[in-house]
Amino acid sequence: MAIKPGWNGRFYEDFEVGDVYEHPLGRTITATDNSWFTLLTQNTAHPHFDHHYAAQTEFGRPIVNSCLTLALVTGQSVTDVSQNVFANLGWDEVRMPHPLFEGDTVYSRSEVLALRPSRSRESTGLVTVRTTGYTQEGTVVITFTRTLLVYRQGHGPTSARPSVVAEER
Protein backbone atom coordinates (compact mmCIF):
# COMPACT_ATOMS: atom_id res chain seq x y z
CA MET A 1 0.00 0.00 0.00
CA ALA A 2 1.40 3.40 -0.99
CA ILE A 3 0.82 6.28 1.40
CA LYS A 4 0.35 9.50 -0.55
CA PRO A 5 0.49 12.93 1.04
CA GLY A 6 -2.58 15.13 0.93
CA TRP A 7 -2.68 18.66 -0.45
CA ASN A 8 -0.47 20.96 1.63
CA GLY A 9 -1.25 24.27 -0.05
CA ARG A 10 0.81 26.64 -2.14
CA PHE A 11 4.03 28.38 -1.22
CA TYR A 12 5.03 31.78 -2.57
CA GLU A 13 6.84 30.26 -5.58
CA ASP A 14 3.71 28.36 -6.60
CA PHE A 15 1.66 31.49 -7.34
CA GLU A 16 1.52 33.23 -10.72
CA VAL A 17 -0.27 36.48 -11.51
CA GLY A 18 -3.45 35.66 -13.40
CA ASP A 19 -3.96 32.21 -11.86
CA VAL A 20 -7.57 31.55 -10.87
CA TYR A 21 -8.44 29.01 -8.18
CA GLU A 22 -11.95 27.60 -8.04
CA HIS A 23 -12.13 26.72 -4.34
CA PRO A 24 -13.35 23.15 -3.90
CA LEU A 25 -15.96 23.40 -1.15
CA GLY A 26 -19.37 25.03 -1.15
CA ARG A 27 -21.31 25.71 2.06
CA THR A 28 -25.05 26.04 2.61
CA ILE A 29 -25.87 28.67 5.22
CA THR A 30 -28.46 27.66 7.81
CA ALA A 31 -30.55 29.81 10.12
CA THR A 32 -28.50 28.37 12.98
CA ASP A 33 -25.23 29.50 11.35
CA ASN A 34 -26.60 33.01 10.96
CA SER A 35 -28.01 33.21 14.50
CA TRP A 36 -24.90 31.79 16.16
CA PHE A 37 -22.53 34.06 14.28
CA THR A 38 -24.73 37.07 15.01
CA LEU A 39 -24.81 36.20 18.72
CA LEU A 40 -21.08 35.44 18.91
CA THR A 41 -20.23 38.83 17.42
CA GLN A 42 -22.88 40.71 19.45
CA ASN A 43 -24.39 42.11 16.27
CA THR A 44 -27.80 43.45 17.26
CA ALA A 45 -29.10 44.23 13.76
CA HIS A 46 -32.62 42.77 13.63
CA PRO A 47 -32.54 41.58 9.99
CA HIS A 48 -30.09 38.80 10.97
CA PHE A 49 -32.01 37.09 13.76
CA ASP A 50 -35.57 38.43 14.02
CA HIS A 51 -37.67 36.71 11.35
CA HIS A 52 -40.74 38.85 12.12
CA TYR A 53 -38.74 42.06 11.71
CA ALA A 54 -36.95 40.75 8.59
CA ALA A 55 -40.30 39.86 7.00
CA GLN A 56 -41.15 43.58 7.04
CA THR A 57 -38.01 44.59 5.09
CA GLU A 58 -37.71 44.79 1.33
CA PHE A 59 -36.04 41.35 1.40
CA GLY A 60 -38.93 39.74 3.27
CA ARG A 61 -36.65 37.33 5.13
CA PRO A 62 -33.48 37.30 7.23
CA ILE A 63 -30.24 38.30 5.56
CA VAL A 64 -26.97 36.66 6.51
CA ASN A 65 -24.62 38.67 8.70
CA SER A 66 -22.13 40.24 6.28
CA CYS A 67 -19.18 39.41 8.56
CA LEU A 68 -20.17 35.74 8.33
CA THR A 69 -20.10 36.04 4.54
CA LEU A 70 -16.59 37.54 4.70
CA ALA A 71 -15.35 34.91 7.15
CA LEU A 72 -16.83 32.00 5.19
CA VAL A 73 -15.50 33.05 1.80
CA THR A 74 -12.08 33.80 3.29
CA GLY A 75 -12.13 30.34 4.89
CA GLN A 76 -13.06 28.69 1.60
CA SER A 77 -9.96 30.22 0.00
CA VAL A 78 -7.47 28.94 2.60
CA THR A 79 -6.86 25.59 0.88
CA ASP A 80 -5.67 27.31 -2.30
CA VAL A 81 -4.38 30.67 -1.11
CA SER A 82 -3.26 30.80 2.50
CA GLN A 83 -2.59 27.28 3.75
CA ASN A 84 1.05 28.34 4.16
CA VAL A 85 0.42 31.85 5.45
CA PHE A 86 2.77 33.73 7.75
CA ALA A 87 0.23 36.53 8.26
CA ASN A 88 -2.81 38.19 6.73
CA LEU A 89 -1.98 41.82 6.05
CA GLY A 90 -5.41 43.10 5.12
CA TRP A 91 -8.70 42.88 3.33
CA ASP A 92 -9.45 45.76 0.97
CA GLU A 93 -12.23 46.79 -1.36
CA VAL A 94 -14.79 44.58 0.38
CA ARG A 95 -18.04 44.83 -1.58
CA MET A 96 -21.35 43.07 -1.09
CA PRO A 97 -23.40 43.68 -4.21
CA HIS A 98 -26.23 41.30 -3.26
CA PRO A 99 -27.46 39.93 0.07
CA LEU A 100 -26.90 36.35 1.12
CA PHE A 101 -29.88 34.52 2.57
CA GLU A 102 -30.34 31.57 4.87
CA GLY A 103 -30.55 28.49 2.66
CA ASP A 104 -28.16 29.83 0.01
CA THR A 105 -25.06 27.82 -0.84
CA VAL A 106 -21.86 29.84 -1.17
CA TYR A 107 -19.02 29.00 -3.56
CA SER A 108 -15.88 31.02 -4.19
CA ARG A 109 -12.88 31.61 -6.40
CA SER A 110 -9.72 33.69 -6.19
CA GLU A 111 -7.51 35.32 -8.79
CA VAL A 112 -3.86 36.17 -8.14
CA LEU A 113 -3.41 39.92 -8.75
CA ALA A 114 0.13 40.64 -7.57
CA LEU A 115 3.27 39.04 -6.15
CA ARG A 116 6.43 40.45 -4.66
CA PRO A 117 9.16 39.18 -2.37
CA SER A 118 8.97 40.54 1.16
CA ARG A 119 11.56 43.23 1.84
CA SER A 120 11.62 42.56 5.58
CA ARG A 121 11.24 38.77 5.74
CA GLU A 122 13.33 36.76 3.30
CA SER A 123 11.37 33.61 4.12
CA THR A 124 8.11 35.05 2.73
CA GLY A 125 6.53 36.82 -0.20
CA LEU A 126 3.48 39.05 -0.56
CA VAL A 127 0.52 37.64 -2.45
CA THR A 128 -2.54 39.71 -3.37
CA VAL A 129 -5.71 37.99 -4.56
CA ARG A 130 -9.22 39.06 -5.50
CA THR A 131 -11.76 36.64 -4.07
CA THR A 132 -15.37 36.37 -5.19
CA GLY A 133 -18.15 34.58 -3.32
CA TYR A 134 -21.30 33.61 -5.20
CA THR A 135 -24.48 31.61 -4.65
CA GLN A 136 -25.78 28.42 -6.23
CA GLU A 137 -27.38 30.63 -8.90
CA GLY A 138 -24.10 32.42 -9.67
CA THR A 139 -25.15 35.63 -7.92
CA VAL A 140 -22.10 37.46 -6.56
CA VAL A 141 -22.56 38.18 -2.84
CA ILE A 142 -19.05 39.41 -1.95
CA THR A 143 -15.79 40.49 -3.54
CA PHE A 144 -12.60 41.59 -1.81
CA THR A 145 -8.88 41.81 -2.26
CA ARG A 146 -6.65 40.24 0.34
CA THR A 147 -2.93 40.65 0.82
CA LEU A 148 -0.95 38.12 2.81
CA LEU A 149 2.58 36.99 3.53
CA VAL A 150 3.10 33.43 2.36
CA TYR A 151 6.09 31.28 3.29
CA ARG A 152 8.60 30.39 0.60
CA GLN A 153 9.25 26.71 -0.01
CA GLY A 154 11.47 25.19 2.65
CA HIS A 155 10.72 27.93 5.18
CA GLY A 156 8.24 28.13 8.02
CA PRO A 157 6.82 25.45 10.25
CA THR A 158 5.99 21.99 9.01
CA SER A 159 2.82 20.08 9.61
CA ALA A 160 4.54 16.71 9.73
CA ARG A 161 2.46 13.94 11.23
CA PRO A 162 3.86 11.16 13.38
CA SER A 163 4.27 7.81 11.65
CA VAL A 164 2.03 4.91 12.54
CA VAL A 165 4.11 2.49 14.60
CA ALA A 166 1.85 -0.53 14.42
CA GLU A 167 -1.59 -1.24 13.11
CA GLU A 168 -4.07 -3.39 14.99
CA ARG A 169 -5.73 -6.09 12.98
Automatic annotation (TrEMBL):
CDD domains: FkbR2
Pfam families (UniProt xref): MC_hydratase
InterPro entries hit by this protein: HotDog_dom_sf (IPR029069), MC_hydratase (IPR048274), MCH/BMMD (IPR052342)
Gene3D superfamilies: Hotdog Thioesterase
Protein name per its UniProtKB record: MaoC family dehydratase
UniProt lineage: Bacteria, Bacillati, Actinomycetota, Actinomycetes, Geodermatophilales
